[in-house]
Amino acid sequence: MRYFKFKTIEQIKAEVDHLGLGEFIKFDEKLEAIFKPIRIGKLTIGNRLAIHPMEGCDGTLDGKPDELTFRRWKRFGASGVKLIWGEATAVVEEGRANPRQLLLNEKNLSEFAKLVQITRKAHKETWGDDSDLVIGIQLTHSGRWSYKKPIIAFHNPVVDRLTYIDKAKKIAIDENYPVVSDEYLERLEDEFVKCAKLAFEAGFQFVDIKQCHTYLLNELLAGKTRVGKYGGDLQNRTRFVRNVINKMKSELGDKIEIASRVNVFDCIPFIKDTSGIGRPVDHPIPYVFGFGVNEENPLEPDLEEPIQMIKILSSMSVKLINISMGSPYYNPHIGRPFETPPIDGYEQPEHPLVGVARHFKLTAEIKNAVGGDVAIVGTGYSYLREFFIFAAEANIKEGRTSIAGIGRGALAYPDFLIDLKRYGRLNPSKVCITISHCTNLMRSKHNELGQFPTGCVPRDKVYAEIFKIARKTSPF
Ligand SMILES: Cc1cc2nc3c(=O)[nH]c(=O)nc-3n(C[C@H](O)[C@H](O)[C@H](O)COP(=O)(O)O)c2cc1C
After folding, report:
1. What is the CA(440)–ligand 1 centre distance, in A?
2. Number of domains observed in the structure of the chain
3. Which domain CATH number covers 123?
4. Exposed site from 28, 293, 419, 438, fewest CB < 10 Å?
5. 382 pocket-lining for ligand 1 (C-beta < 6 Å)
6. Ligand 1 proximity of 439 Cβ (cutoff 6 Å)
């Protein structure tokens, strides 16, 4: 089904109103708020635009940034966006989501330092000054979605059925599969701290303790049924992240800022129905397995705990929070509203603008609840194509987010700010069209490295070529 038919801002506004979403999706064409700097701790971010973490699955097998990683970051550096939120980087080998995911360790340190240098240099060459450019790195453990074997925080009867030990044969984990031990988690806390030190040495200005997209730390937040000190009440479920922050602070002081990308609404898995449209899987009620979900109706968010959690982080001087939601593995329409689904997905069960509105609404509610000294980065902008900049302006100007982050749109059109400066508008023939080929490449594992690299297939020739090869050689 084709949803995005808008050539003018009036047309998209009319559809937003028609869908009853006018309260949540607003546009402001007088661009000024997006250019205002913002301070976080010791850092000044020169404008209110961020590039979200966007994994390229293009590292070396031992986790170093490779040619395409450098290329991508260089393009991000030259973009003029002043907050570059570096991508998912594993803290331990067994926590990598794919064999080409970046891995931060002493052996790889110099390549990460080079990544920062190249990015800053590109920014300086294009924009003259990099003193207000802020670059961070997202530290992660992929948990249930680790490529070697799933590492789970607790059994979720609904998601376990989709957590494969052997994907080709569709063999999923069962109730006897072991849950990760407290001892493992204690050791893992120290790995996060070790990586924060390395990130500082490499020149990153902040580390993101990743708690989103149903990876391990997100799952710990949802671990109401987990027994022991990391499960049960919210105090226990935030123990891991609190310990990590305390240890990072004691080892590094305020040398490096600590940030977190968080899921404020996990929702539940969706699968294709007979017509190819996504529908929620059968699930028990109360649904006690998700973070930020209404247990009586897990299709609806309940922000009480996410707000409490962000307030806890803020009280520990974590002042940069990136809001996200959903799982790329089982409900991709929640996190990244799309026009065409990914190969392992389903047709949109809702108008994609509803998904955009959900992002903007929940982000505004969080921002309103957690107070003014926490900078909130919002998500959900790429679907709006060339109009995203006006939605960013409205959301920032009216205080619904502090910073607007762009994900897929930055792979497609990293030079959008250059065009905006030169021509006063974004070019509709350069924007992301949300047809999910970047996700399709991420899901393509059939080359000699066990992973194809990803980028923008329709807008970037390099990936158009890679996609052709992936298609031609695909066993499916
Ligand atoms: C190819 C690809 C790679 C991604 N990599 C990451 C990542 O490393 N870390 C993360 O938190 N989110 C990642 N995301 C999610 C994006 O950061 C973003 O939340 C999502 O695409 C929605 O924003 P958008 O509508 O602007 O694209 C990725 C998404 C895609 C499509």
Report:
1. 13
2. 1
3. 3.20.20.70
4. 419
5. yes
6. yes
